[in-house]
Amino acid sequence: MSSLAWVRGVNTTLGRVAPQWVAGKMRRAFMTPREFEPRDWELPLLASSERVTLRFGLSALRWGVGPAVLLLHGWEGRPTQFAALIQTLVGAGYSVVALDGPAHGRSPGHEANVVLFARALLEAAGELPPLRAVIGHSMGGASALLATQLGLRTEALVTIAAPSRLITVLRRFAHFVGLPPVARARFIRQVEREAGIPAAQLDVARYQLDIPGLVVHAEDDRVVPVGDSAEIHAAWDSSRMLRLPKGGHQAVLANPEVADAVLELLERVESPAVLAMAS
């Protein structure tokens, strides 16, 4: 029997007799990221970076000079997973700051969630020059969308393989680990309590999005269904959709079409600093 099958069997059984306990155990598993070492292809970019520490201990990597672009990886991700995009942005004259999300890399914390990721973006933006763009992958994309509702200021926003609503993510996870209905409901309530916001409110359909944007997703993404990108795009009138036939959930970050689309978006957006210089 596989380890997943064993976990699902235990959760199904104990979830009926001790739903609160099982829900708590799965809530901790859901919010506690594992750490993975960078791949060999990430190492050159890592070596060329400058490590910076922001307020409240947030750690980040920085490259280049020019208008600022802020990047945030997904769950259990790393800044250098954006390697191809970072190289393109720096080569085009942008400075790039890529965060270690809360409880990831060298940033503090043991648990994280989409709200903490969104607040990390707000904290980072408070220390950086006016942002030309914010780019987020997976949960980083969902948190970037949320951060705009909490006051994040940026000239443009890009989401890559991002989920459209938290409640769907929670239900997928609960089903994946075999939680029965009562335990599933308690798991969701516990996540909401830790995040401090009801899951139903973390839904792009509820957001007011009025900045230029790009929504990227691969058709063969098995982690976040491509349909989520359609929901984000439908709720975001000023966004462009880029759907790619292949790339899955991670490799899509290295697709040259993504870098080209990001540069095209940035070229259409003038930062306040550029406007001031031109006046």
Automatic annotation (TrEMBL):
A GO molecular-function descriptor: hydrolase activity
Organism superkingdom: Bacteria
Keyword check for Membrane: no
Keyword Amino-acid biosynthesis: no
Annotated signal peptide: none
One Pfam match: Abhydrolase_6
SUPFAM superfamilies for this protein: alpha/beta-Hydrolases
Keywords: Hydrolase
AB hydrolase-1 domain ranges (all copies): 69-257
Gene3D superfamilies: alpha/beta hydrolase (3.40.50.1820)
Protein name, UniProt field: Alpha/beta fold hydrolase
Organism expressing this protein natively: Pseudomonas schmalbachii
